[in-house]
């Protein structure tokens, strides 16, 4: 019985040892899992903090772009109002010029048979008419220059908005670490790297040059109309409306870009 008891105790000790070994292995496995989960949680916490910082930066940038958009919108509305007033004055001037032309023509035929004093009066009126025509030409030149300047400003703002959007997309595609690493490899600052990303390509340069040439041709055409014989009002109106339509499209494009930005 003692021998059986001893053997039974030995079997129990051996079973307990095996159970203890299994428990130790399980405990080690659990400890490794706890360590892995702790490291994963730490990494996720770091990632969440980084995302929070990016979110704060994006929120500030959004606020700045909204302010820029509202400011630009107000400026465009003021310029549109000013341009509308100029258009009304131009139409009134054209009507007055047409009436003056008709009146001058009638008076010339009626006064052709009168004395030199009457002819002198007619000449004075013609001089006045010429002064008004010259004033109208000055007004049209100023209007066209202002209109062309507005269009050029819009083109510049559109290009700047597109560049800003492209840089933002590029930066968004890269993590902050990758962006800093690229700047370190190139041995430049982050600001310099952004400027490199904003460099205008050959196609954009050619497009800008072509737009400049078109504007130059348009101004030359307006000058040619002003120097041409009457009537030229319809051709002048078509040329002005063409540029106004171009400006309207640019305003819509810029508004759309700023809205998406």
TrEMBL record:
GO terms for cellular component: centriole; centrosome. Residues 13-103 form a coiled coil. Transmembrane segments: none annotated. InterPro entries: CNTLN. GO terms for biological process: centriole-centriole cohesion. Keywords: Coiled coil. PANTHER family: CENTLEIN. This is Centlein. It comes from Phaethon lepturus.
């Amino acid at each position: 019985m003692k021998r059986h008891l001893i053997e039974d105790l030995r079997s129990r000790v051996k079973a307990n040892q095996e159970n203890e070994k299994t428990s130790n292995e399980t405990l080690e496995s659990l400890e490794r899992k706890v360590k892995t989960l702790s490291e994963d949680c730490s990494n996720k916490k770091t990632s969440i903090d980084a995302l929070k910082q990016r979110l704060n930066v994006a929120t500030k940038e959004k606020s700045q772009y909204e302010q820029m958009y509202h400011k630009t919108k107000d400026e465009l509305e003021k310029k549109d109002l000013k341009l509308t007033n100029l258009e009304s004055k131009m139409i009134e001037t054209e009507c007055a010029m047409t009436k003056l032309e008709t009146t001058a023509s009638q008076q010339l035929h009626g006064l052709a048979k009168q004395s030199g004093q009457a002819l002198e009066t007619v000449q004075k009126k013609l001089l006045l008419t010429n002064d008004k025509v010259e004033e109208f030409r000055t007004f049209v030149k100023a209007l066209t220059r202002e209109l062309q300047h507005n269009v050029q400003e819009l083109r510049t703002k559109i290009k700047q908005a597109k560049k800003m959007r492209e840089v933002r997309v590029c930066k968004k595609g890269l993590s902050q670490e990758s962006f800093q690493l690229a700047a370190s490899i190139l041995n430049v600052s982050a600001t310099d790297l952004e400027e490199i990303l904003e460099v205008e390509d050959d196609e954009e340069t050619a497009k800008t040059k072509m737009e400049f040439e078109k504007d130059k041709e348009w101004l030359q055409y307006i000058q040619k109309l002003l120097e041409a014989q009457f009537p030229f009002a319809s051709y002048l109106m078509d040329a002005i409306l063409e540029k106004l339509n171009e400006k309207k499209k640019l305003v819509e494009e810029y508004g759309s870009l700023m809205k998406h930005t």
